Amino acid sequence: MLNTMQNPQQGDVRTHILAHGKVLYDAVHMLDNTPEHWRTKLLIHMATANLLQCNELVEGLQARDVSRVAWATRNLLELHYFVRYIVESPENAERFREDMVCDYQDLMSFTARHAEYAPFAAVGQQVLDHLRDKHISLAKKNDNYLKPDAIAKRLGEGHHYTTVMKFLSKFVHPCYRSSGNVDF
């Protein structure tokens, strides 16, 4: 592992982020010649998402835009816990892959409660039912979507996750930006 990856306080943050991005980039390209498998593809997609957020973080730092930095940091924190969940077991990787259906099920259930959206929800529900019948093995119809805070809590890091997310949310909130030009 790169020395700059071990203690970001010793170097500047931008260098640390770029070093992290380089490790991700190298890892993705190491997998170029591996046999195609859905878990490999999933990890490549997660590494790519991680790399994009690293780039967003660097750009936010360069622009001195605290909202962009906070947003990218939140996304990186969520990705951190999702990746840990995925690599923990093949079943977790499969459940993560199926999570989109659980997430959309939650959306369809919410949408169906409003009469003006019920026809759209009914069509969406048919698609979800088909996906569940043909492609889903672990996620059941009433399963909740995966939440990174629950994963962090299960890993004994719930307090850390909640504290960091709450702190960062103050800078992501649109009102923070609006108050930026106010003299206190």
What's a concise summary of this model?
The protein is mostly helical and 184 residues long. The chain contains eight helices and no strands.
Topology of this protein?
Elements: H1 13-30, H2 38-63, H3 66-88, H4 90-112, H5 118-135, H6 148-154, H7 158-172, H8 174-178
Structure, described:
The protein contains eight helices and no strands. It is mostly helical. The chain is globular.
Reported for the largest beta sheet, the result is: none
- Compressed to H and E, one letter per element, the order equals HHHHHHHH
Helix count equals 8
Please give the share of residues in helix. Answer: over 70%
Global morphology: globular
Low-confidence stretches: 1-11
In percent terms, what proportion of residues is strand?
under 5%
- Count structural domains: 2
Amino- and carboxy-terminal Cα gap: 45 Å
Q: What is the typical, i.e. mean, pLDDT? A: 81
Total E-strand runs:
0
Task: Offer a few descriptive terms.
184 residues, mainly alpha, 2 domains, 73% helix, 0% strand, disordered N terminus
